[in-house]
Automatic annotation (TrEMBL):
It comes from Fibrella aquatilis. GO terms for molecular function: efflux transmembrane transporter activity. Gene3D superfamilies: 2.40.30.170, 2.40.50.100. GO terms for cellular component: efflux pump complex. It comes from the Bacteria. PANTHER family: HLYD FAMILY OF SECRETION PROTEINS, MULTIDRUG RESISTANCE PROTEIN MDTA. This is HlyD family efflux transporter periplasmic adaptor subunit.
Amino acid sequence: MPLQPTYTLIFLAASTLFVACQKEEKPQQNATPAKPITQVVGVARVEPERGLINLYAGADGRVTTINVSENQALTSGQVLLTVDSQTDKAQVAQARSKIGTQRAAIAAQEATISTLRLAVEQAQADVELNRKLLAVKGITEQTLRDSEATLATRQQDYRKGQADLQQTRAVVTELNADVNSALVGAKDKTLRAPYTGKLLDWTVKIGDFVTGNTQVGQMAPNGSLIARTEVDELFAERIKPGQRANIRSQATGKIIGSGTVYFAADFLKKKSLFEDETAQEDRRVREVRIRLNPGANVLINSRVDCIILLN
């Protein structure tokens, strides 16, 4: 039986109302405001404030003694390591032996010069006597000329003797310089602590051959520890000296120390302090240094998280 027109209108009106309700949008909720940034986190390296000191052998040879152990406290000037100085000692002995020989030669030459000086004086006297004799026709002119030639020869021998003596004395001076140089070389083969602090590491052992430029160890001078970190350029302008910071262990996530920002670079760098350890993005960073408070439970040269408090 076909629907009546009245029922048809009612059905269409109900359908339209249903569709309208389906398309009605829900009221929008209010957006949550962004929280203000109160801290900046960066990866930091723990270092002595005065830096890590690399120790170099300073001389060629084999390591004969190592006088201190790793982690041992050091005083400035303390002997740390010695290198074999037998070669230098042999050079000293050889140079001193040559000095003795040269001094003996000097004594002999001085005696020879004394003899030559007497010969010159005698030849001079002969010339003067022959001139007087020639004046009274007691000798011939040839005799006078022969005596003058003899005087000239004696004078030349005397001058040569003096030159030889001077040269021998110069050799002694050179040998003395060689002795002093060898003594300095032997002294330089003793490595001493440049500062008061702590020995961190030896990179050589007894018996190793080293040169003057060989790094043999590393030490930390006494003083405060710092955390060197970098802040991304987006937050770089918000870092200022005097801001407090917390140091967090990357292993446990716990706070292991605290400190204060004392340095913030005046420029941005392209390369990271840690570019050799982590992949880097092409961003610029600002170097920041934090002086740690006493009692921080940190290890030198370790990587930690540095939380800089902006308020």
